[in-house]
Amino acid sequence: MEVTRLEASGLRRFPQVSMAPEPGINLITGDNGAGKTSLLEALHLMAYGRSFRGRVRDGLVRTGAEAVEVFVEWREARGRQRRAGLRHSGQAWTGRLDGENVAQLGDLCAALAVVSFEPGSHALVTGGGEPRRRFMDWGLFHVEQGREGGFLPLWRRYARALKQRNSLLKAGIGGAQLDAWDHELAEAGEPLTGHRQGYLDALQDDLSAVVQELAPSLGTASLQFQPGWRRHDLSLADALLLSRDRDRAAGYTTVGPHRADWRIDYTALPQRETLSRGQAKLTALSCLLAQAQDFARRRGEWPVIALDDLASELDRHHQRRILGRLLASGAQVFITGTEAPGGLGESGAHPALFHVEQGQVRRQHDA
Could you tell me the domains of the chain? Predict the structure, then answer.
């Protein structure tokens, strides 16, 4: 995928901003606080429905603006031109895709694939389970698009059933109504879990290859899936039944795919020692690159890659390795920084240069 136009209004420091990225690497420089990261947040918003810094209402909308509006045009591998627009107030949203209104935010987000690495990405490894569930689900949303009986309908079915079951639990209602929603949760949750397990299994080889290049001292990496209940000896229906008293006391469902998680084990850390911050960053980046490679193999094109403040997150050695890998892939890449990362010149790249200053983005040219 290749973004050819990005426009936004009401975005943090930008009343109005527009840029025309190039294929390959796009380097966006500017002083701290100039708004470089906000441009990547705009791309991320279109692809995920949220900022990688958190919820839209937590500062993404410019002070005094009613909403942030983002418009993106991009080209897919077979030459198909696409366009999407999203208006998000932090409370409500409206969207259009290829000239048509969009009823589900997930349908809009599934169109443009962006993989983002930013200073908070280590939470993929060190944080709670939610970002790891989003990681699995993002991959499945994209690689199973349009497949009958695919992941997205199951995910929506499960989410709807979970909401209904939790409402009953909170109200103290049991009996036949709770039985019905237990059945619905199990009917959607078992195959949903199978999709997630299959996705992580398929990601294993890509992850191993990337880790071997970026962090060979950690040894061989293996992904361990945790489905959200004791799946090895219980069906989801049985797990829900056994947890019913606990769930009624808690007022919510305590077992199931909404509690799923995964972890990475390394052969060089046999006791599952805690990763250093640097190791956690490399692990998170390895997962994201493996996910991008898996996407490329299944979809026939790379997603857009966004690397925020790369120089502060990785040393020159790892910058060079990452950029070399991405250059060889042909992916479109966005990199932000106060200056060009040291590893960029060493990688042999010739990036398109953009500079952010006083609420504007200007294209620069080499002297």
Answer: 1-113+305-367 (3.40.50.300), 119-302 (1.20.1050.90)
Q: Distance (Å, rounded) from C-alpha 332 to C-alpha 326?
A: 8
* Residue 141 contacts residue 106 (beta carbons within 8 Å): yes
| pLDDT for residue 147 | 56
On whether the CB atoms of residues 102 and 95 are closer than 8 A, the answer is yes
Q: Give the DSSP H or E segment for 193.
A: helix 175-214
Per-residue pLDDT tens for 257-304?
A: 999 999 998 888 876 667 788 888 888 989 999 999 999 998 889 999
Range 276-282, long-range pairs (CB < 8 A, 24+ positions): 277/122, 279/215, 279/218, 280/122, 280/125, 280/126, 281/121, 281/122, 281/313, 281/314, 282/211, 282/214, 282/215, 282/314, 282/318
User: Residue 290 to residues 135, 157, 174, 324, 361: CA-CA distances in angstroms?
Assistant: 11, 28, 44, 15, 31
CA geometry: angle 105, 107, 110, nearest 5 deg: 110
Name the average pLDDT for the chain.
Answer: 87
H/E element, 206: helix 175-214
DSSP 12: T
pLDDT tens digits for 96-135? 999 899 888 888 888 889 998 888 888 888 888 999 999 9
